[in-house]
Design goal:
Blueprint (H helix, E strand, L loop, with lengths): L5 E2 L2 H16 L9 E4 L5 E4 L2 H7 L5 H17 L3 H21 L7 H14 L1 H8 L5 E2 L11 H12 L5 H16 L6 H5 L1 H4 E5 L7 E4 L21 E4 L23 H21 L4 E4 L5 H9 L3 E3 L4 H9 L7 E7 L2 H21 L7 H5 L10 E4 L3 H34 L4 H20 L4 H5 L3 H5 L3 H5 L3 H7 L5 H11 L1 H6 L4 H18 L6 H9 L38 E3 H19 L3 E2 L4 H20 L1
Parallel strand pairs: 5-10, 7-8, 8-9
Antiparallel strand pairs: 1-13, 2-3, 4-11, 6-10, 11-12
Helix pairs in contact: 1-4, 3-14, 3-26, 4-22, 4-26, 5-26, 6-16, 7-8, 11-12, 16-22, 16-24, 16-25
Length: 634
């Protein structure tokens, strides 16, 4: 039976994403559990890692595979936010569905809204976060030692991150070891991420409590020659990438013999002496360990063994690369991660690697827009800016987006009133006013709703009064269309603001009162230490959410220097378990929202799904070939 092409509607897209949301919802947040997978081979996987959960599913729907691939790609770059990714995506789809049903007669389509959301995220979101969120955070940089990392804040960041990946007990152990690893390396950037395969060793069969941070580099290879039992002191090692044996002794070489001193015995003697001279040079240099990326011959192993040099063969490229760059890095330290099973060990290693990727993403923004470059502020998305966990980022950004929406609404209303007043003031006579009133109202309505240009706002033209142009009203320039698609559309700010609240709602899903307390506490901090007072309409909108119905205790605030150095207090809210010590990266949150908006645009750009039935066709072809082979044998 041939399947017909499937025309996708917004409801079907939302239904597909909601299935993935239901999978990761129970493992989300500080009270989330772990997911147990059982493979066909009998192996089990117990994890809280969102990407591992999604990729372990046997997903067949093409849209679901698109979402999983977007999550995997984002997680591989930033190491963070896979479960929040799905929650935000599903929430945005619901907001778009709600808006399109409400504004169906106005022609507001899902694709257009997705494009407007992405345009807003690329052009304006960074500035919104800088103004409304970053001043309430803190920095990983030590305020007393510029250029150094605040160890306490770093431990808070890693602990909160690893608690979303591992069980609480395992997270504490791995968090402490990761902090110790970072404290011994002066370079926390690309170096540790680039050389992490050589900086860690996974050991299965031991409890995770046996994990250690060892001084020195762990070489992942076996000794080919025994290590002499003596006190070496400092070991001097040499890395080689070629065979030390002379080429004439390598198998397959043609050697012409004959004449005096050209016999096989004399040639072997001379080559053996040459090999001994190489070993003497090694001994003269004080080399006691030879790291070889290739396998050496028995003659080489015997020769270096006589001179007290031990050999490690087939050393991996990662270990040799790290060894070659360690001379200027001080004393190296390696992380040994233990686990009772191979899966548990791999899970801990992946958690550390993702934590390092998250730190690298937090180190600095690579997304500055033209608007950001023009601003006079010096704290634009400062590197290593962090903010308290528990929905603080979402609450602050939600509040800022609603402020932006209501400011825009107030501006449009004021502009509308000013334009009407200006037109009446310049009316030549009562007769002209009566004749042009219908035209003015029609032109003003279209201008304010669809395309409010800068010319009409600041200097209304009298030419429009006598000859209104519908071309300018309905077909603005390309630049104005790109700008107005998101900057002058309050629905974009409202949809994103409402979608953000899905994250703290899920965090506090086991205790809704905590959600109200956290939201009220954040609003109280904004009012007491914020940038500007809320307009009345903003306060009314926030009251509609019900978050100001609970009195929040503001006495639990802790003083931290903000990322901008402005000295405002860091907004701290509670997690559902009562802890307020963790922090999360502002830059990672920004990258996450951008990735979600890009995935949203990609999903809503799909119109039709074509079912190819490739697997059925291949199996039918293989079965036919097997039948033909059996007929030939007969």
């Amino acid at each position: 039976m041939r399947l017909q092409p499937q025309c996708l509607q917004l409801d079907s897209v939302l239904q597909t994403v909601s299935v993935l949301e239901a999978v990761i919802r129970r493992s989300f947040g500080p009270d989330g559990g772990q997911v147990l997978f059982t493979r066909d081979t009998g192996q089990t996987l117990l994890t809280r890692h969102g990407t591992r959960i999604l990729t372990a599913l046997r997903v067949e729907h093409p849209l679901a595979r698109m979402v999983v691939e977007c999550v995997r790609r984002h997680s591989s770059v930033t190491g963070d936010g896979s479960k929040t990714f799905v929650l935000l995506l599903a929430s945005l789809l619901r907001e778009i569905q709600k808006h399109t049903r409400k504004a169906r007669r106005e022609g507001a389509g899902a694709k257009r809204l997705a494009e407007a959301l992405l345009a807003f995220g690329l052009d304006e979101l960074s500035d919104v976060i800088t103004v409304g969120v970053a001043p309430h955070g803190s920095s990983l940089s030590d305020p007393h030692t510029p250029g150094q990392t605040d160890t306490h804040t770093l431990c808070r960041l890693l602990s909160a991150f690893l608690h979303t990946r591992l069980s609480p007990t395992h997270a504490e152990i791995i968090s402490q070891l990761t902090c110790e690893l970072l404290s011994h390396w002066s370079c926390h950037g690309d170096f540790i991420n680039e050389h992490f395969p050589a900086l860690h060793t996974a050991v299965s069969g031991f409890p995770i409590g046996c994990s250690r941070l060892l001084e020195g580099q762990v070489i992942h290879a076996d000794f080919s020659t025994p290590l002499p039992l003596r006190d070496h002191g400092p070991i001097r090692a040499l890395a080689v990438t070629e065979a030390l044996e002379p080429s004439l002794l390598i198998g397959g070489t043609v050697l012409e013999l004959g004449g005096a001193n050209r016999g096989i015995e004399s040639v072997c003697v001379r080559l053996g002496r040459r090999l001994d001279s190489v070993c003497i040079i090694l001994q003269h240099l004080g080399v006691s360990l030879l790291l070889s990326s290739v396998r050496q011959s028995e003659a080489v192993l015997a020769a270096v063994g006589r001179h007290g040099v031990c050999v490690l063969e087939c050393v991996c490229e990662e270990d040799l690369t790290l060894f070659s760059v360690l001379k200027d890095r001080g004393r190296p330290h390696s992380l040994v991660v233990c686990g009772l099973t191979e899966g548990q060990t791999e899970q801990s290693v992946c958690a550390v690697r993702d934590a390092l990727l998250m730190l690298h993403t937090s180190s600095g923004p690579e997304h500055r827009t033209r608007a950001t470059e023009r601003t006079a502020r010096t704290d634009v998305m400062e590197p290593y800016c962090v903010i308290s966990v528990g929905g603080t980022f979402e609450f602050l950004l939600h509040h800022t987006l609603l402020q932006r929406k209501h400011r825009h609404t107030h501006s449009v209303t004021h502009r509308h009133t000013h334009s009407v007043t200006h037109r009446h003031a310049n009316t030549p006579s009562h007769t002209d006013t009566h004749a042009l009133s219908h035209t003015d109202t029609h032109a003003l309505s279209h201008t304010d709703t669809h395309a409010p240009s800068h010319t009409d706002t600041h200097a209304p033209s009298h030419t429009d009064t006598h000859a209104p142009s519908h071309t300018d009203t309905h077909a603005p320039s390309h630049t104005d269309t790109h700008t107005l698609s998101h900057l002058d559309n309050p629905a974009v700010s409202e949809m994103l603001a409402e979608a953000l609240l899905s994250v703290p709602r899920q965090i506090y899903s086991h205790n809704p009162r905590r959600y109200l307390e956290a939201h009220a506490h954040t609003l109280s901090c904004i009012r007491n230490h914020g940038n500007s007072p809320d307009p009345p309409e903003t306060s009314a909108a926030l009251a509609a959410d019900g978050s100001n119905m609970v009195q929040a205790d503001t006495g639990s605030e802790s003083m931290f220097g903000s990322g901008s150095g402005s000295g405002v207090k860091e907004v701290t809210v509670w997690s559902s378990s009562g802890s307020s010590s963790g922090v999360e990266s502002v830059s990672c949150k920004y990258q996450l929202i951008l990735a979600v908006l890009q995935c949203l645009r990609s999903l809503l750009s799909v119109d039709t799904v074509l079912h190819a039935n490739t697997s059925h066709t291949l199996s039918h072809t293989c079965q036919r070939e097997e039948e033909e082979e059996e007929d030939d044998d007969d």
